Amino acid sequence: MKELIQLKVNGQAYEVAVNTHHTLLEVLREELSLTGTKESCNLGECGSCTVLIDGIPVHSCLTLAVEAQGKDITTIEGLAEGGRLDPLQQSFVDHGAVQCGFCTPGMILAAKGLLKKNSSPNEAEIRKAVSGNLCRCTGYVKIVDAINAVATK
Amino acid sequence: MRLPKFQYKSPATIDEAIALVSEAKGDAVIIAGGTDLLPSMKQRRLTPKIVVNIKRAEDLAYIKDGENNVRIGALTRLSSIEESDIIRKKFPMLAKAAGEVGVPQHRNAGTIGGNLCLNTRCWYYNQSAFFRTCRPVCYKFGNEEDKCQLFPTREGKANVCYSVFSGDTAPSLIALKTEVKIKGPKGERKIPLAELYTGDGKRPLALGWGDILTEVIIPDPPAYSSGCYLKYRIREAIDFPLVGVAANIVLDSKDGICERASVVLGAVASRPVEVTDAEDILRSNKITDDLIEEVSEAAFKAAKPLSNLHECSAQYRKRLAKIFTKRAINSILSAISQS
């Protein structure tokens, strides 16, 4: 069954006919071609599909697309402005926190969610904020350093 | 992995939601945060025809500090409870328990109502559709005649499902003597939270078709009281508890006589387990090391966990229940004496 819904992604309004059983992740990637949001476990265990809904990090694989209507959705594509990387993205580059890069969008959005709430978190708070994001290159130290650098700036 | 197809309904009132679910009987499920339901649907453990969203129906996301209680709406996110000043001040154990559910993304979506109505789990039932293609169907997944695959039922005996209730917030809330409000086709009722759980792994909740948990009511803590929730898990995030111990103690004065005590264990049975002996042992006594030892021994006996990991046998989990009970009571006593 399809339903016509309005989605606001990265400040842009979309009108999409979605299957009601499709998740926000599927709609972002398949209907809107926003493939920056990654699909991995699809069960809410790995965090790679993390997006911000109204500024709060959630699993897009566990969010029905129809339930994201009227909400403000931010994906990794929405962070850079006018070709300039977001400070968090730049920090990930500078610290070598991007290895294979697959977990990076989820990591950055989970960190973004934290920094929106608390602009100067300590290391424990940073680790807690990205505790739902797995990095199989296991580059956690550099990831935490990268977030820490933005937090204390 | 796609979700199975279903009809999606988002009624405007809670009564409409109740009507929808009670008419559809077993064909409809309620979705709140979706963090427990959707993975189960993706793995085809649940394939409802209708999914009813209750988030639009009524504003059930609130934490209200009343005269002698705190009322929490069932749709309040776990992260809101974790961060709420009211909860942190009055029921720090609940804030801690809510903050230890899953990972931040789960807590930002998952609700207190959903955490209390969590489905029970076991390592056979919580597998993929693919796993099931080459194994017998278990009692929880299948029908009355299918057998439990962990402990196959003997001939002539009634089936039993041993799946485990792994919610983090329920033990703390039961220790705090919480009541829950349930709205259903027959109207509204209020029951002690402990009575929400049947202890039957196949049907863990005492809810009829169309019954919806709408509110959690926690009585204010008395003057010299404190609580503590301790959770054991392999990793510091995402894991369900292997053992959870919630304790709450009320004294008549600082370092005084115990007026009330409750110890509730999580993840050691198909329901949160109240260690009923704890109250009998501690009440009207000054709490000593010997009595704490006695209570923790009672917790050891009350815990009947499953072995479900190589590193974590049932015996080990029973011993953890004992040690955590001791730790919890000691930390409560020092919290009360420092208050």
How would you characterize the overall build of this protein?
The complex is a heterodimer of chains A (153) and B (339). With 153 residues, chain A is of the alpha+beta class. Chain A folds into two domains: 2-75, Ubiquitin-like (UB roll), CATH 3.10.20.30; 87-152, [2Fe-2S]-binding domain (DNA polymerase, domain 1, Orthogonal Bundle). Chain A has five helices and five strands, in the order ββαβββαααα. Chain A is globular, with a radius of gyration of 15 Å. The model of chain A has no long low-confidence stretch (mean pLDDT 96). Chain B is α+β, with helices and mostly antiparallel strands and 339 residues long. Chain B has twelve helices and twelve strands. A five-stranded antiparallel beta sheet of chain B has the order 4-5-8-6-7. In chain B, strands 9-10-11-12 form a four-stranded antiparallel beta sheet, with helices on both faces. A three-stranded parallel beta sheet of chain B has the order 1-3-2, covered by helices on one side. Chain B starts with 6 loop residues before the first strand and ends with a helix. Classes of the chains: A alpha+beta (153), B alpha+beta (339). The interface between A and B is medium-sized, with 31 and 30 residues. Chain A: This is Nicotinate dehydrogenase small FeS subunit. Chain A: It holds the Pfam family Fer2_2.
Q: CATH architecture of the domain at 225-338 in chain B, please?
A: 2-Layer Sandwich
* Average of pLDDT of chain B: 95
Level of helix content of chain B? 25-40%
CATH class of the largest domain in chain A: Alpha Beta
Number of strands of chain B: 12
Oligomer: heterodimer
Counting helices, strands and paired strands, the structural category of chain B is alpha+beta
CATH-scheme architecture of the largest domain in chain A: Roll
Order of helices and strands of chain B: EHEHEEEHHHHHHHEEEEEEEHHH
CATH topology value of the largest domain in chain A: Ubiquitin-like (UB roll)
| Rg estimate of chain A, integer Å | 15 Å
**Number of extended strands of chain A:** 5
End-to-end separation of chain B: 51 Å
Q: Report the top-level CATH class of the domain at 225-338 in chain B.
A: Alpha Beta
Radius of gyration of chain B: 20 Å
GO molecular function, one term (chain A): 2 iron, 2 sulfur cluster binding
EC number (chain A): 1.17.1.5
Domain 2Fe-2S ferredoxin-type (chain A): 3-79
InterPro entries (chain A): 2Fe-2S-bd (IPR002888), 2Fe-2S-bd_dom_sf (IPR036884), 2Fe-2S_ferredoxin-like_sf (IPR036010), 2Fe-2S_ferredoxin-type (IPR001041), 2Fe2S_fd_BS (IPR006058), Beta-grasp_dom_sf (IPR012675), Diverse_Oxidoreductases (IPR051452)
